[in-house]
Give the backbone structure.
Amino acid sequence: MKKILVLHGPNLNLLGTRQPEIYGHETLEDINNRLFERAALEGWEIACRQSNHEGQLIDWIQAARLDGTAAIIINPAAYTHTSVAILDALNAFEGTVIEVHLSNVHKRESFRHHSYVSLRADGVIAGLGSQGYHAALEAVMRQPG
Ligand code: CA2
């Protein structure tokens, strides 16, 4: 079965509990459940994972290189702006990479304007809230091959 990995970075486990004006009211579980249902309808296997630890995210990206994962949809959260290590791990992954941000990072503080992950991402979606994950999923499922 065709596989997609969805990775959520640090603090995204708090979604729906604080700062709803920036990140929305949905919880991470709500988002993951909807992604799972949509992917299953199209016959895709999807794994959604969240970690507050850079090394754990890198381990999951490395595992995806070897288990036939076709695409990674990743919201690296604050690691977007700091992590060369996550960029290096994604550079070693041969499938599609879509970077997603709930908020429009370009409308926020200047330190959020730069993304290391964008140097690798095939597509970048920002500012659409949780819809961004769904747009990424639809794009991945419609890719040829
Ligand atoms: O807009 C996004 O999706 C971000 O990746 C979210 C990160 C932020 O550091 C990036 O610049 C943009 C922060 C995630 C923190 O999530 C929270 C959710 C609810 C309550 C508190 C934090």
Observations:
- The pocket of CA2 is lined by residues 11-12, 14-15, 18-19, 23, 75, 77-78, 80, 101-103, 105, 112 (CB under 6 Å).
